[in-house]
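Possible race condition, two jobs.
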Amino acid sequence: MKTPRNGKTRELDLTKRLRRIFILSFISVLLFIVIVTLVGLYFFLNSDVVTYEDVIKDGFWIIAVFILAGVLIGTVITAGISRLVLRPSWELLTGVRRLAQGDFSARMDLGGAYEMKELASNFNDLAKELENTEILRSDFINNFSHEFKTPIVSVKGLVELLKKSSLPEKKRAEYLHIIEEELDRVSDMATNILNLSKIENQTILTDVTEFNLSEQIRTCILLLEKKWSKKDIEFKLDFKEYRCRGNEDMLKQVWLNLLDNAIKFSFDKCTISADIQETEDHISVKISDNGETIPKEEFENIFNKFYQKDKKALSEGNGIGLSIVSHIVKLHQGAVGVESKDNLTTFTVTLKKDI
């Protein structure tokens, strides 16, 4: 039974092989030059340049000059071969070792032939992707720890206050209400994380049915009535009755998250609009709100886990909703985009009709 080898053992084996290649290349070139030297000496002896008398008289020096010239030429050629062939191998080996050790900033420029440039480009793309993944992983852990710890600390502090017998009944009721809200926040976060984890690991869309999309959006608005009523927000629904094919429960999460965000970031006493448009192959839903403009440089980040652009988002959410939206839409072979200008932000979800 073979013993599995670790990374260092494999690296040493590769290093030994590269050294063997270099030595064999040097010996091969040297033998080639010696043969060429002997052949050249033979032709010289059969010409008027060098005679047999010269060889007999100064034979050692003539042969020494030919051998020395052969060694020098062989060394130069071997060095050139090692630069062209072995240098990219060494650089690739160094880059892979840096990646294996967790240094995702490793980059390489092999130059030379098209294949070498293509190999370097693919390696750099891989390293960049791993670096971005590591950054996202680190941000995910930091943000999640903060998001999960904050309500727990708040609840713990309020429980300590509730232990005081002298606490007025009005304050006690207020603190209990805050505890309830914080626990709901933790519960929602756990639910969203479980949903996101489930969606991320799902590659095949299941439970596809045909349903009334217009009615689903109206239902989602009613479910959020408590939130938009507090801000005195009105809704403008500019669509007829449309039907859609997809996972009804998943798409319901999409509209709930987009509408919830629209309510959260809208100004008080404003209007949120929802529009449905249909083409031959696609159906699109647009949800617009009147709130602060989202900078263009943040368009890509807002769909990342736990990304929150300001303190308001930090206090009212956990940065998971748009990530869930993005994954669900991708499962439906669709696309989600955002436009934001002059305090008008519009999210557009485009779905295929023939899923």
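Job #2 (started ~2 s after job #1):
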Amino acid sequence: MISSETLTLLTRLLQIDSVESPALEGMPFGKGNAEALALVLDTMRQWGFDTVNLDNFCGYAEIGKGDLFGILCHLDVVPVTDGWSHPPFGAERVGNRIYARGAMDDKGPAVAAMTAAKQLLDQGLTPTKRIRFLFGCDEESGWKCMERYAATEEMPAMGFSPDADFPVINCEKGIVYHTLTMPRPAGVVSLNAGTRANVVPDAATLIVKDSLCPHMSDFRPVGDGTCRLQTTGVSSHAATPEQGKNALTALLNLARDVDPLFATLADAFGQTDGSGVSLALHDAKSGALTLNLGTAETDGDVIRMQLDVRHPVTMTKEDVTRILKERLSPAIEVKQGFYHLPLYVSPDHPLVKTLLDAYNEVMHTDARPITIGGGTYARMLPLGVAFGPCFPGKPSTIHQIDEYIDLDDFERMTQIYRLALERLCFR
């Protein structure tokens, strides 16, 4: 049974708008992120943990003695788009669900892991390791929080991040972003779409001058000498772009006659498996490559787009960049940007086996480790994996409209984290 204390903490945390916003003095990612960090650190201090706030970039809470074991969570969330039927920061409860941005990514799982540790301590058990909860505030936008942490703080030798899927993830594909820059075509006023590279865009808008409209049946006159083409899609996490519907690539396909480069981009990125640009690659360890054309913006005489690629562990980011440059038009500048190297831990490693056993015991299953395209803080650790919170076969609303957490699932994940922490850090 979820305690009133836990439910109150979860609700309060979900009610904080921690989408990254412009920096304020002492708040590098905005006021909401700092408020979320203060709430969890204050809570854990009351629970007996020693806490440290690293200039509101991130913070941690620690208890125990011995080797350092990390539980790495993040408190920032992706932006909210139109279409929600519940207030995105209202933490509205409907039946057994709480609706809010961050409910499953990653505030809900963070509270579940925190609660699991508190239950073990309340039981009178003594940690045999130093347990450190690390709370980042810039996971969705660039990991500057982790750069700040790594610059001055001790890195846990081992740990997990409750920020992906159960049963346990021993392999994460490499992630590399690219900025694609093309000349703004004659007659095009603007092209805009998406919010982040790692979110499938659910809306896109192209505005052109009236001179182009007679040739474009999908455009609608605006009345100011321009016509507008708008498309809508379905947002999803870029780790699973096939679960969404990309409004940007749909728009480029409809507007392919506006400019040959629009047709090039539509053909290259209309398929999420990379087949349109010779990137349909896979390996036995991590599976197939995926990609997502996530954003577009107009800046003077150019249009810039952000491409998110999740590649197999046996590839390199340089391989991806080379193929893109070879296959796209020379008129499209390809610039490699943000990236994460792949992660792979043997399924036979004791960390993986212990976490997997805890999951299987609570869930009465015989599941095996899995691979994801998502990128978690586990990559920061010398030895780390992602562990929960999404259950196999359950719909995921991460990065989607009307994100929610099911309270029965919350209770199950807490039980799993409790058993795992007991075996890893209390014996």
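The radius of gyration is 22 Å.
Logs attached separately.
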